[in-house]
Write a structure and sequence with these properties.
Elements: H1 25-50, H2 57-64, H3 68-75, H4 78-99, H5 110-127, H6 129-138, H7 147-163, H8 169-178, H9 182-191, H10 196-207
Organism: Streptomyces filamentosus (Streptomyces roseosporus)
Protein name: TetR family transcriptional regulator
Region (Disordered): 1-30
Amino acid sequence: MRLLTLLPTGHGTGPGTGAATGSGPGAERADAARNRRRILDATARIVAEKGPDAVTMNQVAHASGIGVGTVYRRFGDVSQLLWALLDDRERQFQEAYMSGPPPLGPGAPAGERLDAFLDALVDRVAEQRAILLAAHSAAPRARYHSGAYQVMHAHVAMLLSRIRPGDDSALLAHLLLGSFSPDLLHHLTVERSLPAERIKAGVRQLLALRA
């Protein structure tokens, strides 16, 4: 299964993302990749410390040690930079559960893989909560039409069909993933101050994933 991302149409990562100016093609690609990684990592640190509203191109340039002109050329504006950050994190998450080491990746029993997936999804939504919540507030139903959601749904439905053959795994997967809506996770973790471990245990108890 190929990776699908949540980056919407029209939200590119700016001209020059694929290659920077330099002496040779190989060096250009490596330099572009390093700059992109440093910019995204710096953006992630700012979001984690201060929230997405605190992100500016100047702050990202300072935190990454890369010129602000390069940041603009790579990503265009703050909106595109934040979408690129979400896309980057989604790619990492997909790689982990589709081809990473068990129990999250292939090689473990379906029940163990589903438990590991749910735990990782709680952590991912908590980590990216502010950006995901902003995207969800802007377009509440867009989540269900994104490539990222479709891949997650197919993965969860596949695991459920192995754990509970004969059940409506496609529907159960939708209901299960509904527990991870950014607004609900925001309410639970921020407004109710529930720890991640309690949420992870509660999802399994609610849906009776274990016989």
